[in-house]
Structure formats: structure tokens, C-alpha cells
Write a structure and sequence with these properties.
It comes from Peredibacter starrii. The protein has 10 helices and 12 strands. It has 367 residues and is α+β, with helices and mostly antiparallel strands. It is elongated, with a radius of gyration of 28 Å.
Length: 367
């Protein structure tokens, strides 16, 4: 019997860095006239495994008309605002009832290759940034963003046996990779299905770096929310990694471009800048990493760790730590240069003062 989706939706995410930080209380005040807002909430039975330092604010932005294959559909647009400076836009598109698996894979492939969603998301992000600009101390205009797709299924028709057998009866890896043309190798399929998780016999999650499948009969959005949280952290790690590259290049160019002068204070400002950048970015990155922590091996904590692994958090954190180490070393060297320059200046001043005293004395003796 053919397996079909009886009820489900596609969650298309675009995450943008729009500011240095965002005052969530001010954002709430801006939307106080509407009830279409709320704070990040999870199923109570899983809360013991997660530590959230500051829950993001969720705002429903209404319905948006967008193209899906050869037809226009109404997508619900939800914005989540995170205090560390990001906004994630989620376009929720209902899956047509009785869609079979190959048809869903074709939809996934279309979404993967469509550019209109990207253009629309950037337009909405810019508009939203402007709407809440009074809650953002410093506006950001970073060109990069994160994209992700979650296929959320509540009801399946035609599946005989436990839900765990779904991966044996339909091509889940093809959906995850949005591959509607080529037949995937067993090696690729195995690598995708290694990230399959179940809390009960009735639910199932497959997580990968660019998309996920979530089967949740009770309609709970906990798993998509946890993945979304990881996605926002990923964007911030990428943002500060890129920012460190820019700052290090600027410092290097300024150091190389400085001409050595006898009384020049050439390195003092650079040393101060390097130290300030190190402290600021270290603190911000630590806040981002601490915004969502997992404790124990409970289900949502497992999903978050799996997402973090697929998003290569460790690689980004290692890169940032190495660059922060380089920045600290530069700051140390510049301070040493400043100290050496000051010592040389003091030595010259002492020699000049001695000369001022000795020369007249020798002149008087010669007379």
C-alpha cells in the first residue's frame, strides 16, 4: 500500500543577524496591541534536560502568498527574535492532503532550487528589522544567512507496522537531501539514517545539516523549536568567526602600514583596539554558547546535540577560539611594542636632559 501524507506542513527557515543584540522587552512593547506573540515554550516533561538563558520572542506576521511549484499557496509567517541579535523567519506551508512520498521529494527539490523564497525572506527580514530598530542598539547588515527546511508530518496513511519501519518503506534520505533525480548510494543513505531518533514508538526524527524530518502525531513543535535554536546559534558562530577575520585583517594591515617614528604613539591605539575586540567578542560568543544548554541524555537534549554535531558546532568554536588566541597574542605583542617604545623615548629624554646640564658645564670649563 502506498504511503501518503494525510496531515503535515513544511517549515522553511531563514535566519538573519540583524543587530548586535535585541532588547526583547522593547520588542514586546512594540507589539503590545496584538496577541500574536509569545515566548519560547517546550513540553514540560522535557524541560529538565534543557537550560535556556533567555527565551526568544515569537511573533506571527500573518499570511504570505508564495509560489510552490506551479501554484500560489498561503504560508503562515512566524518571526522569532533572539536576544543575541538574530531573527529567524519560518514560512509554514501545508502539505497537500494525500501527497505521496515521491511527490513530497519533488516538492523538496523545488524548494531547494527556488530563489524566490530567498528574495522574499530577505525582504521580510529587512522590513522586520526596520519595525523593531528602536530595540536594537547597533543595526547589522551581514549578507550571510542560514537556511533550513523541516518536513513536519502529523498523520500518515498506508504505513503498515511500527513507525520505525518508515525508513525502510520510503526514501527518507532522498527527502532530506531534496534529491528527486539521482538514486542515492547505500553509503549516503546510511550516513543520513544514522541520525534517526525516537522518543516513543509513535514519533520519529531524522536530522541532517540542511533539513530534517519530524513525524509527531500529537502536533508538538518541540523538536522543530530545538533545531531552530541550534540554527540561530550556528549563524552567530559563523558571524563572529567572519567578524574576527575582518578585525584581524584590519589590525594586520594597520600594523604593516604604520611608519616607525621616534615619538610616535603608533601602536598604543592598536593595542587598545585589539584588547577591546578580544574582550567584546569573547563575552558575546560565551553568551551565545550559554543561551541554550543540555543536561543529561533526555530526548530534546539528544536532538539538540545531534543538530549541533550536524551543524559542525565544534569546528566553528575551534576556529573562533584559534582566532581569539591570535587576537590575544597580537594585543600582547602590541603592548610590548608600546612599552619598548616608551622606554626608548624615556632613554632619549634622559640623554637630552643630561646633555643640557653637561654641555654648559663643559663650555664654562673651556673658558
Amino acid at each position: 500500500m502506498e504511503i501518503r501524507i494525510k496531515k503535515g506542513k513544511i517549515l522553511i527557515y531563514r535566519v538573519f543577524d540583524i543587530g548586535s543584540e535585541i532588547d526583547l522587552e522593547k520588542v514586546e512593547a512594540l507589539f503590545e496591541d496584538t496577541k500574536l506573540k509569545g515566548r519560547f515554550k517546550l513540553d514540560r516533561k522535557h524541560n529538565m534536560s534543557l537550560i535556556i538563558s533567555s527565551s526568544p520572542l515569537s511573533i506571527q506576521l500573518g499570511s504570505v502568498n508564495m509560489r510552490l511549484q506551479d501554484q500560489m499557496v498561503a504560508a503562515e509567517l512566524i518571526a522569532k527574535v533572539w536576544y543575541f541579535g538574530t531573527v529567524s523567519l519560518c514560512f509554514q506551508i501545508p502539505i497537500p492532503e494525500n501527497t505521496n512520498w515521491p511527490e513530497l521529494v519533488k516538492i523538496a527539490s523545488w524548494i531547494e532550487n527556488d530563489n524566490e523564497i530567498e528574495v522574499l525572506a530577505r525582504e521580510k527580514a529587512k522590513q522586520f528589522q526596520n519595525d523593531i530598530k528602536n530595540a536594537i542598539p547597533v543595526l547589522n547588515e551581514w549578507s550571510m544567512n542560514e537556511d533550513y527546511v523541516t518536513y513536519f508530518i502529523q498523520e500518515l496513511d498506508g504505513l503498515q507496522g511500527p513507525l520505525a519501519t518508515l525508513t525502510e518503506k520510503v526514501d527518507v534520505p532522498a527527502l532530506i537531501l531534496a534529491e528527486s533525480k539521482d538514486i542515492l548510494s547505500e553509503q549516503v543513505k546510511k550516513s543520513i539514517l544514522e541520525n534517526t531518533y525516537q522518543y516513543s514508538r509513535d514519533d520519529l526524527v531524522v536530522v541532517d545539516w540542511n533539513s530534517a524530518l519530524v513525524v509527531e502525531p500529537n502536533g508538538s513543535m518541540d523538536v522543530p523549536l530545538v533545531i531552530e535554536f541550534a540554527l540561530n546559534q550556528l549563524l552567530e558562530l559563523r558571524y563572529y568567526d567572519d567578524l574576527l577575520d575582518q578585525r584581524l585583517n584590519t589590525l594586520y594591515n594597520e600594523v604593516v602600514g604604520k611608519k616607525r617614528g621616534l615619538l610616535s604613539n603608533k601602536y598604543s591605539r592598536l593595542a587598545e583596539d585589539a584588547g577591546q575586540i578580544y574582550l567584546e567578542i569573547s563575552e558575546i560568543v560565551e553568551n551565545v554558547e550559554n543561551s541554550f544548554k543540555t543536561v543529561g541524555d533526555f530526548y530534546l537534549a539528544t536532538i539538540f546535540r545531534a543538530s549541533s554535531k550536524r551543524f559542525r558546532f565544534d569546528d566553528w568554536q575551534k576556529s573562533i577560539n584559534e582566532k581569539l588566541g591570535n587576537l590575544a597574542e597580537i594585543s600582547k605583542l602590541l603592548h610590548s611594542e608600546v612599552s619598548e617604545s616608551r622606554n626608548q623615548t624615556l632613554e632619549i629624554i634622559i640623554i637630552v636632559l643630561i646633555a643640557i646640564e653637561v654641555v654648559p658645564f663643559l663650555y664654562n670649563l673651556s673658558q
